[in-house]
Amino acid sequence: MTQTPAVESGDRSHALAPVESVAQISSVLRDADPSLDPRLAALARRAAADGVVLLRNDGVLPFAADRRIAVFGRAQLDWFAVGYGSGGDVKAPYSWNLLAGLRDVGVQVDDELAAATSAWTAAHRPATSAEWGRWPHHLPEMPVDDELVTTAAARSEDAVVVIGRAAGEARDSLLEPGSYFLTDAESDLLDRVTAAFARTVVVIDAGNVMDLGWLARYGDRIAGVVLAWQGGMEGARAVAAVLAGEIAPSGRLTDTIAATYDDYPSVVGFGDPEATVYAEDVFVGYRYFETFAPDRVLYPFGFGLDYAEFTQRVVRASTDADRIELEVEVANVGTEHSGRQTVQAYVSKPGTALAQPARELAGFAKTSLLAPGQRERLVLSIDLADLASYDDAGTTGHRDCWVLEPGEYRFAVGTDVRRAEPVASITLDEVRVIREAVEAAAPDPAAPFRRMTLERDADGRAVVGWEPVPTATVDRRERVLDDLPTALEPTGDRGIRLDDVAAGTATLDEFVAQLTLDELALLARGDLVMDSPLGTPGNAGVLGGVSASLRTKGVRPVTAADGPSGIRLSSYASLLPSGTALASTWDPALVRELAALHGQEMVRKGADVLLAPGMNLHRNPLCGRNFEYFSEDPLLTGRLAAAVVAGVQSQGVAACPKHFAANNQEAFRTRHDSRVSQRALRELYLRGFELCVREAKPLALMTSYNRVNGVWAHYHHDLVTTVLRAEWGYEGCVITDWWLESAVDPDFPALADNAYRVRAQVDVLMPGGVKTDDGPQAYADDTIVESVARDDGLTLGELQRGARNVLGLVLALAPVIDARATAAASPRRRCATATDASG
Ligand code: BGC
């Protein structure tokens, strides 16, 4: 079934007319919505700029003030500020394009060329709305002939060619021209421009990594390459500031850029309708390339150039049995430019019993802005326990444990995974068990596969080997039955309101014990439709007080709104840098600050739960939603996600990290099965979530659409109850991604659909209606209530447990929701609105 959310459109008409000057912004903001905070826009610009990755620069950048620049490529005007779908569909008050941004920052652009490009682009602009999931991958390029290019070359010194690539939910990139590859028109443009200009700078405005193998064709005629990502409404202006040298580029790659697509270890089976075997196991991204194929890398993980010239020196490396502390002094030894350096620490593990990647990111830190001559000391503190590996096969003698193998842990420090020099090591004499866990979410014995492992050839070189993946041995039925919660004795309505719980005059259990079966079932689903009338207009859904009886008891309706790059409601909201752009800053402190202002905007706009951050790993560069996600690395992902959650939640509203777990392709996303070893799950796909949950305690969390080792994530007792809640101690509210796939619980045939889900402790179906072959329907199924009466059906205790999780979220949000209600009811506010309207 095609998913057709009620409030999605892909319509970007509100953002198509770009602002052309900073002066214009204040009037645009005033007209659009005076409550939009210019400080958020300013910080978004800084974050977008700090995420710009400079891949090549022969000295052409920053552009000297006296040089005239010919800018080619329609994307300078039709700039992709964000990807499509729930993560991008924000009603932005304005959006910069690159041409306006360059002019704003004082770059002398070739106006004649700009006029020609503007005229052509305006005449060839496609319809503004795109059908859900059928977004364009690119927009056709303006054809150029030699005359246009050579006359432009006569007027200008240097050229910029802008390549634009969209990204979007429900649509992966394709191995086709215009998507992962250049189109003929783009190649032709590059051919002609690089022939006519001595120096060309390529700016890539893309949500996801695209093929860059073509750069080699042009040799040093391409003098600069800038990965702009999609930086939101201020993104193009931020890129312009970097090109002009007003802001120093300091972004670093969060993914490896390989020589060709086929070099990635995840290509086999990507996009399959039924199942994808994650055969590369823990060798994702740089973990694979640095171990087995270093020569297949165009740009390594962590890479990015600066205008400034830095040195760095480890001034102290202190180790004890549990940790290593590295103090690194970074100096800007250049004379012209300021800049920020990111210091990265990598660990090489012994790999005596477990196959280990050559290097793994173990810590990182970024300097402040250093002027020429300035230096700064950074301290990277790494707990050995955080470097433990998950032994899912018992090779170390400790099956289902997090372990540190005996041997030497070597640490290297540098500016990317490749350029990191050994600085210290710690040797463990014997295996150390860091944490005991239990087998969970293991591959199905009925679908075994072989996973990548590391072998050595006769010369000791790492070569790819294969071994059978350990499959599940646990009896899930028994596990669930052993863990059923005891029910609270139902008391009937004692007049306890949720406010009494907030005030401490009653306990949450006393409140829950009063609820009827119907009320418990209502708490287990959201309101039936997107854009629920119970919430702020344009919401993605509402949960909590979805019935009059619940509201009478003080259960407030909670508004959930997308998403990672801004608040997706009917009203205007700030369009912020996409996940990859933010992650490329390698700056959790900056991201937290931005998220705090974002949280303030949520309070003003009436969004209680932000359906963000998106934090699935970039397993394959074609995944359509990579733009929303952060990186191929779980540490970077986890730290960035924790920063978003902490920032948002510092304002009294909630974040909802998503999609738990292993949502790494968009094709067939509601049915395909991610088949993955427990070890890869624990160390990579769950690791970011674990870091985020432990560090920032998100109030909500969203499951994914896909299956994980045969079980849909929204039914996954092992993922949600065994790992997330029991092992990590998560106490928040777990919600589905929008709707669920109908299924009967194989271990408890009395349970189907929502009853099956509640048993997993996925608390709330969002929104609350039923998904049929004709699309989402605004009625609820009866599976929960019906199942309670059956043998082996849901127990009252399970429903009460879920209700507690939901009510915990409502309680946490009540102050913000109440303040909003008070403000809306205040006579002063009503009066001001009336005056505004008449004026
Ligand atoms: C997406 C979620 C999003 C939800 C609500 C789904 O299509 O996968 O990420 O939060 O819609 O808009």
Keywords:
single chain; Immunoglobulin-like; binds beta-D-glucopyranose; 29% helix; Glyco_hydro_3_C; alpha/beta; Glyco_hydro_3_C_sf; disordered N terminus; TIM Barrel; four-stranded mixed sheet; 24 helices; Glyco_hydro_3_N; 3 domains; Rossmann fold; 839 residues; hydrolase; hydrolase activity
The CATH class designation of the largest domain is: Alpha Beta
Q: Report the helical percentage.
A: 25-40%
Terminal-residue CA separation: 48 Å
Q: Total domains, how many? A: 3
Which ligands are bound?
beta-D-glucopyranose
- Read across the widest sheet, the strand sequence of neighbours is 1-6-5-4-2-3
Mean pLDDT: 95
CATH architecture term of the largest domain: Alpha-Beta Barrel
| Gyration radius, rounded | 27 Å
Determine the number of helices (DSSP H or I, runs of at least 4 residues).
Answer: 24
Seen as an oligomer or otherwise, the chain set is single chain
Task: Describe the model.
The chain has 839 residues and is an alpha/beta fold. The protein has 3 domains: 17-31 and 52-249, Rossmann fold (3-Layer(aba) Sandwich), CATH 3.40.50.1700; 294-450, Immunoglobulins (Immunoglobulin-like, Sandwich), CATH 2.60.40; 521-825, TIM Barrel, CATH 3.20.20. Helices cover 29% and strands 19% of the residues. It is built from 24 helices and 32 strands. The longest helix is centred in the last third of the chain and has 30 residues, at 796-825. The radius of gyration is 27 Å and the shape is globular. Residues 1-16 and 830-839 have low confidence and may be disordered. The structure holds beta-D-glucopyranose. Beta-D-glucopyranose binds at residues 3, 5, 86, 540, 562-563, 611, 658, 737-738. Residues 3, 5, 86, 540, 562-563, 611, 658, 737-738 line the site of beta-D-glucopyranose.
